[in-house]
Design a protein that fits this description.
single chain; mainly alpha; 2 domains
Length: about 210
């Protein structure tokens, strides 16, 4: 597939079932368990009403990287679909200028997964993962998702049907997420060079790693 077709796939909010908030700092919490993050996202509408300006999370016991941020305006747009609660498509007007990056940067930013994943990998991910948490694991560590994708394709080939693909991919990504959660350093990266530096600590392509 050509680059133009690949570039048209946006991974941020790919469909009505799931969404991604990683660039909003969701995985900057030390605790990235689905339970903890779900509670944070469920409380999003209360924060959207009460916060007037950007608020930071700087507690070293709470976050992975104190020089980064966690946006308070992220939450569930509907059941199982996280996103920006002050996005114009959500509230009918531009509200993101209250946030840390404001609307100009939010509009233009694309995470490393957009660059590193092929068209086929993106389509397979969107088609076979509906759970927002598992989907976020793939976006946070695109090369590990690519490793899993290629393994599934090579191992099962033409015998792979839709239900099997969903089950195998979901279990593999969830298991990888449990391993990632044990690592205490930066997981989500805002650029490809940053990701290339950090991935040695958790990427499946690098084999087993020792957590600091």
């Amino acid at each position: 597939m050509g680059e133009d077709l690949n570039e048209k796939i946006l991974l941020c909010q790919p469909d009505s079932l799931k969404g991604c908030c990683l660039c909003c700092g969701l995985f900057n919490f030390q605790d990235i368990s689905i339970k903890y993050l779900s509670e944070f996202l469920n409380a999003g509408k209360n924060r959207e009403r009460s916060y007037k300006i950007y608020s930071e999370y700087k507690d070293e016991n709470l976050v992975r990287e104190t020089s980064s941020y966690i946006c308070p305006y992220q939450g569930f747009l509907n059941e199982g679909k996280p996103g920006c609660l002050i996005h114009p498509l959500v509230i009918g007007y531009e509200g993101r200028d209250r946030s840390f990056f404001e609307s100009k940067i939010c509009n233009k930013f694309l995470c490393p997964a957009h660059v590193l994943l092929t068209y086929e990998e993106k389509v397979f991910l969107i088609k076979n993962v509906d759970d927002w948490y598992i989907y976020s694991i793939a976006i946070a560590d695109p090369e590990s998702y690519s490793f899993i994708y290629n393994y599934i394709k090579e191992r099962y080939g033409e015998s792979l049907d839709g239900n099997m693909a969903k089950e195998i991919l979901g279990k593999a990504l969830y298991a990888h997420g449990e391993n990632i959660s044990k690592y205490k350093g930066v997981i989500f990266s805002y650029s490809v060079p940053e990701y290339n530096i950090n991935k040695k600590n958790f990427c499946l392509k690098n084999g087993l790693w020792d957590n600091p």
